[in-house]
Amino acid sequence: MAKLTQDELLAQFEEMTLIELSEFVKAFEDKFDVTAAAAAPVVMAGAGAGAGAAEAEEEKDEFDVILTGAGEKKIQVIKVVRELTSLGLKEAKDLVDGTPKPVLEKVTKEAAEKAAESLKGAGASVEVK
């Protein structure tokens, strides 16, 4: 198999639908045991002036949204989890069924508050840490 260049790979991704691309990202994450969403904060933190300063900023700027209970409207909660993440229906259902579980990790305060508000609006119990 010939090695594809970066431009060739991008051309292939341009032809994919959003669903196909989402499935590819999930498969990539599973294959290489990584999380695409977690890569951006790590890269941004590494670009800081010093490691100590970056760690201090990370502690203040990164929050986790933990789903502690689904409530009575479990289907609505599953829909919100799917909107907030790139999870498929089965994965979102498993996350909701297996509470307490993190829905989002290492996100900004604003994103965490917005996600928590959406989940609470659907009837879920949520913690922001």
Which features would summarize this protein structure in a list?
single chain; 129 residues; alpha+beta; three-stranded antiparallel β-sheet
Q: Provide the residue-averaged pLDDT.
A: 79
Radius of gyration: 17 Å
Spans of at least 5 consecutive residues with low confidence? 38-50
The termini sit apart by 46 Å
Largest beta sheet: what is the strand line-up?
A: 2-1-3
State the shape.
elongated
Can you write the helix and strand succession as a string?
HHHHEHHEHE
Structural class: alpha+beta
**Portion in helices:** 55-70%
User: How many strands appear in the DSSP assignment?
Assistant: 3
Oligomer: single chain
Please work out how many helical segments DSSP would assign: 7
Q: In what range is the share of β-strand residues?
A: 5-15%
Give the biggest beta sheet.
Answer: 3 strands, antiparallel
